[in-house]
Amino acid sequence: MIFYLLYFAIVIICTLGLQISRYIPNKSDTDKLAQVFLIILLIHTIHAAIFRDLLPGLVYVDRTAPFGLIYGPILYFTFCSIEQRNVTKRQMLLHGIPFILGLVGHLVFISSYTFRMTYRMEYYLLLYSIMGLSWLFYPIWVFFLSNSATNRARFERRLYYYSVILILVSSIFMLTLVLNRMIERSGADAASSGVTIFFIMLLGSLLGYNYLLGKLRKPIHWDIQSLNLSASSNPLEKPLPGFTYAEQQSIKLKIIDYLVEKSYLDTEFSIDKMAKVLNVSKPVIQQFFKLHFQDSFLKVINSLRIKEACNSLSDEGFDMNIEELALHCGFNSRASFYRNFSQEMGCSPIEFREKSMLKY
């Protein structure tokens, strides 16, 4: 019963994590590796459920599957991604050699009855020893490298710190199991050992899920600050009615990312164009602006344009005339620019320029 609960929990968490990852725009290499990790965990779990419980006569198919030889390299690649270290195709191939050899051995083992009966014990001990050493080597190596690495966001660094702990625990458990089997010369598996491994896999799936969920939430905090606007609330706090949580986050990220790119500086910019580019309806966009900025779409956009104009006017090297500045900031006419600037700043662009130059 405990195995079924673990299988079910891992499958659900991995599926939810992969669903969340669909809504993360501009995925980093780390995000993609987290996706790959959850996919491998999902396949590993389904594979085990089939050959351990649904087809118990083929349990050896699960026992010799080399999934365990993938997790160490993924940890290392994740570290390199977070620390912005390049990984060449040659390096990827070198780190993948143990898995490739394990896969070849797995195919030979399950296809040859003679080999399976003659070398079963030796093969189990060899495979599990290599897995245990892999789980011991990679975390220690990553931990050593991380001490000399530049500090990245704590949120991302926690990903491989926790992974190091999980894989180290797994390695100690696996190597202890191998030593016991070498002494006892008994079967290579036991219910207690299986529960331990799948419980660690469950913790790993939670780690991947939590990371992707955090990446879905965090960009909104960072990007809303870069807009230099006073939002009435954190965009995460107020829901958009009629959408699931994941859909809401996707819509919010699309809108914020689009604004951060300063697309509003185009004189052809409009809510219709924004709705078409983002594939989000006009009412939803208007609702977002009203909900989080307590103002209309047009007023918020004009406010952003005026802030851009202020940045240009504050620049000591500013050399545009007012008409050019108006077009540069997305206004179609000098009159519209003057009117909005006066409403926003309480003075004319020329007066603002003069005040700014007094500071130098």
Reading the helices and strands in chain order gives HHHHHHHHHHHHHHH
Global structural class: mainly alpha
User: Uncertain spans, ≥5 residues at pLDDT below 50?
Assistant: 149-155, 185-189
Question: Looking at CATH, which topology of the largest domain would you report?
Answer: Rhopdopsin 7-helix transmembrane proteins
Q: How many β-strand runs?
A: 0
Cα end-to-end separation: 75 Å
Average predicted confidence as pLDDT: 80
Write a structural description.
The protein is mainly α and about 350 residues long. It folds into 2 domains: about 1-225, Up-down Bundle (Rhopdopsin 7-helix transmembrane proteins); about 245-355, Orthogonal Bundle (Arc Repressor Mutant, subunit A), CATH 1.10.10.60. Helices cover about 75% and strands about 0% of the residues. The protein has 15 helices and no strands. Helix 4 (about 70-80) runs antiparallel to helix 5, helix 5 (about 90-110) packs antiparallel against helix 6 and helix 7 (about 155-185) packs antiparallel against helix 8 (about 190-225). The radius of gyration is 28 Å and the shape is elongated. Residues about 150-155 and about 185-190 have low confidence and may be disordered.
Structural descriptors:
360 residues; 15 helices; elongated; Arc Repressor Mutant, subunit A; Rhopdopsin 7-helix transmembrane proteins; mainly alpha; 2 domains; sequence-specific DNA binding
What is this structure, in a nutshell?
The protein is an all-alpha fold and 360 residues long. It has helices spanning 2-21, 29-54, 59-63, 68-82, 89-111, 113-147, 154-184, 191-226, 245-260, 271-278, 282-293, 297-313, 322-328, 334-345, 349-357. This is Helix-turn-helix domain-containing protein.
